[in-house]
Design a protein that fits this description.
Mean pLDDT: 68
Structural class: alpha/beta
Number of strands: 11
Length: 259
């Protein structure tokens, strides 16, 4: 089974490997979407961050972030970057196979930090949406065999992923029990031909049972607002990172709408 995934930094280190036993995204080729629903600051596991100094990054002033990301497998570096900055990075998994990032040490803007990570990889970034980038093979370089991008340069698919993330965020923020903040969850969703979620499965959750029920009830039947592009690999797997929304602003519009 093929799949598209939204991954946090623990996945590449095996943190969820025991839970991915449903055939989801376990094929040689799938779309990797490194994404965080929460903007800048902490890693997915703040309490453990001090034991992993090579993966730390802290928020600085003026929209800058102090990075301390060493050279490492590119997927791991992108996961650390997404968790640190809250910036979504869309990239075809085939483009990252065997790739290593450059180290990023110091205070940079999110864009400069990402450009630093990509040094020497033959990849370049494109703006996909607000707080989101798509990585593609640089046009002046031929990527090694087996690393040609699938959907990463496809504007239609990039726009669909942006719409899907916005719909998920809005749905979670409308329910008090599922507002991102005090739980971490991974869930897989399937989208039908008209852009509605036809199935959802919770893969991992460190919150209460009612949170799982709220996720299932809220996401099931959710409308993305547009049909999925032809050939979209499914399911799409999301990871929600624990960070209080009053620090990220994730749910401010929904909260203000309710007074």
């Amino acid at each position: 089974m093929k799949g598209s995934v939204v991954i946090n930094p623990q996945w590449a280190r095996g943190g969820l490997s025991s839970r991915l036993n449903m055939g989801i995204a376990r094929t040689p080729r799938f779309c990797l979407v490194v994404m965080s629903l929460v903007p800048a600051g902490l890693m997915a596991f703040p309490a453990a961050a001090s034991s992993e100094p090579g993966r730390q990054a802290v928020a600085a002033s003026d929209g800058l972030t102090r990075f301390n990301i060493p050279a490492q497998p590119l997927e791991d570096a992108l996961m650390a970057y997404a968790a640190a900055t809250g910036v979504e990075v869309f990239v075809d998994h085939a483009l990252t196979i065997g790739q290593r990032s450059a180290p990023v040490l110091g205070t940079y803007s999110p864009e400069a930090g990402l450009q630093g990570l990509l040094a020497g990889t033959g990849l370049e970034l494109r703006h996909a949406a607000d707080h989101a980038y798509t990585l593609v093979a640089a046009p002046v370089q031929e990527p090694p065999s087996g690393r040609m991008p699938g959907w990463s340069a496809d504007q239609e698919q990039s726009q669909f992923f942006a719409a899907l993330q916005a719909a998920v965020k809005q749905t979670l923020c409308m329910r008090p029990g599922t507002v991102p903040g005090q739980y971490r969850a991974a869930f897989a969703i399937w989208i039908d031909s008209v852009g509605r979620v036809s199935d959802v499965r919770v893969l991992s959750l460190n919150g209460a049972e009612q949170t799982a029920r709220g996720l299932l009830d809220g996401i099931q039947g959710m409308s993305v607002g547009q049909p999925p592009p032809q050939g979209l690999e499914q399911p799409v797997t999301f990871v929600i990172l624990p960070r209080p929304p009053d620090q990220t602003g994730d749910c401010w519009p929904q909260k203000s709408a309710h007074g």
